[in-house]
Structure prediction request, 910 residues.
Amino acid sequence: MYDAAIIGGGVCGAAIAMYLSKYELKCCLFEKENDIAMGTTKANSGIVHAGYDPEPGTLMARLNVRGCEITAELCAQMGVPFRKVGSLVLAFDNKDIEHIGRLYERGIANGVRGMKLLNREDLLEREPNLNPEVKGALYAPSAGVVNPWRLCIAMAETAAENGVEFFLGSEVTNIEKTMGGFEITAGGKKYESAYVINAAGVYSDKIANMVGEYDFTVSPSKGQYYLLDKTQAGLVNSVVFQCPTERGKGVLVAPTADGNVIVGPNAESGSARDDCSTTRDGLNYVAAEAGRTTGKINYRENIRSFAGLRANTEHKDFIIGESPVCRRFINVAGIKSPGLTSAPAIGEYIADVLKDCGLFMSRKSGWRILEPKIRFAEMDDEQKAELCRRNPKYGNVICRCNTITEGEIIDALNSRIPPRTLDGIKRRAGTGMGRCQGGFCGPRVHEIICRHYGVPAESVLLDRNGSFIVCGKVGEQK
Amino acid sequence: MTYCDIAVIGAGPAGLAAAAAAREAGAGNIIIIERDKEPGGILNQCIHNGFGLHRFGEELSGPEYAGRYIDMIGGEGIELRLGTMALDISPEPEPGEGGIRRKTVYVVSEARGFEQISASAVVLAMGCRERNRGPIFVPGDRGSGVFSAGSAQRYLNIEGYLVGKRVVILGSGDIGLIMARRMTLEGATVLAVAEIMPYTNGLSRNVAQCLDDFGIPLYLSHTVTNVIGSGRIEGVVISQVDEKMQPIPGTEKHFDCDTLLLSVGLVPENELTRAAGITIDPRTNGAKVNEDMQTSLEGVFACGNVLHVHDLVDYVSAESERAGRAAAEYLLKGAAAKGEERIIENGANVGYTVPQRFDPERISKSLEIFFRVRKKIRAGEITVYSEGEKIAGFKREFLAPAEMQKISIPKVLLDRAKGDLTVSAEEIAEVN
Prediction:
């Protein structure tokens, strides 16, 4: 019998797991994919929003501002890439100037600190590559960029370190109410839990339906992106938004926490829940819109195009709290932008929600946060030399684009929630994230996975179930 | 700190040839830095033949060609450091003894850890990598089964695994063509090769021997417009493109397949070069060099595919031997007295040249210029002008972007040039 079962191993589920692991509770987390951070968490803009967008007084406003406050420190403690680069909302005409004025006021109401309205001159001094037709901007210094899957994995590993059990490849297919709480069928097995927290992302309505709640429907909105090589770093120094239009929040151009440049997204409402395909039209639209921000984007340096889904519902605000139709069933649903920013604050908040719902919670002694992993490329010469003396595997560079060593890959394989796929290693160690996109290091990482688990090459996956890489030894084909 | 005369970065065909030539020219203490476990570079996975016709007068396989050079670097004076990654190159601020400005190369390996190697001269021979899905915007799902042709070749020829059974290939570069044949021989079915250009990008002999001989259809002016499958890919859609390379609606062809190979070009791998502050030519994506293959940083030379992408390894060897000799000369004589450098400009239909500049004082016999044309030309003349005056012309029956061109301007003609040179490729009226 668990005290709380979390459904969904995205950034929200991971944050909730981490905050609940601070208490004397028996918790578990179910994830249908073969790894955590596999949904929206791995395909989004990676922005930590300052908090001037949400309507004052909403849960979204509160969690956004709080999330922005705590993410930086959390990332520093866990060694997650984060950079407080600030954000800009550009204005191109008087209507836009009025709009950023309203955003400024909303930001003040939400408690966002340090915002400034910049004139054209100050703006272009800060961002010389912008479209010269720009008139001014709202500047929010507290905004930042984070590596979203690294944040998710670090929080999940911290949770696991402190006793939360993770069940991967365990799709929740049924939830029954029982005397003591719930019986959950996940991955074909049955589990009992007093409380259920539904953080199932684009599937959260399906999970809610299982306990008879039909108050919301997720209608995913797909967004497509370009990710440019690190050679393009410096194109913009901050996250650069345009004013939102009827068509959506608009396309942003931003540095990423890892030093690349990201351009996107568009917004395709009514997308299928499993549709993360890119399209020619979608990417062309993104390029056309981004061209208004700056004409200096070099798409020849694109290293990857990708798409992600936002878990939009018919409600403007996040849907967080006990289900109106089912006691002890907590929804964390409709977590669209600024969901990533809010995630740590959501985790913190859910602990309070559970208390309010009657769960007895006492602080655990000896709780500890995950320590940063070894990152060879980030060390100075002396540290590198010392590291290699201690363990020569850190001298074997496997990913040459990002200088990632065999030692770091082995660390990932020995981590609290060990990956079994090439992309699982990628999300933890960073291999294959560079300009060659795994063309060179892929076969080598593949070999290390086979050696570590003692499995044949044919059984190793790139990412999701079914994504095998090789189909057999030469000479064994039928 | 380890001291050496010449540090060669890369033990592929370029690095091996440069090291061998440098030693022959009198250099003693040479270290070759190679990240792989074996020397030979990409030649090791090129088990087909066709290498060495120019250099050795016979047809060799890739490993055999590499073997010849591996034999040449044996013996005193050349140390091969395998499993070693060069991380950074930084030049000393001032020239030291003998007017030589030393460079520190930072390397790391499992065997020796993190080290600094101080070298009088450095030869950059890091080769190139394959362009992948990113810069060509292949839309669709992100399932597994999309490989660069070279990665699939490595899996097959080095690791011994077949990556898939039903294959579509995008791009008609040489590696893609070679892989079409190779995978067919291993029992896979190659359904189509799509090429966005109206002509192939590989050598004509490879089109004949790898596609035509196996009945593999080549779709010119076609590109991939969708990839289907989020686990393993299940299908690929190709469409015809118009003159502006835009897909034409209604021309879609669907193929049920589990594999898409990309053979869409090679990119010189110049991260070290850029980080060292060496001037890069945006046309080649390699360093700008003079007639000695010397880069903008004195005592640093570049050769092979890191400088510009070659079609034939034989030319890589020749170019690298020149770089190796020049590195030895720098070591023995110090920085050459600088004459007045002249620029080689790209004229009509010429995409780039290597070298990009030269010093007429230092040309003893002739100036060799390598270049690529921008379009197919039947019956053309390569002309060399200087300040409006034609100093040389070379007739060619056929010129194509896929085949690197070479001209050799004798010193007697070069002496007529009063300034910079412009190399052009012009169509001449066919006389029947």
In short: Chain A touches chain B through 60 residues (CB under 8 Å). Chain A is about 30% helix and 20% strand. The longest helix of chain A spans residues 59-78.
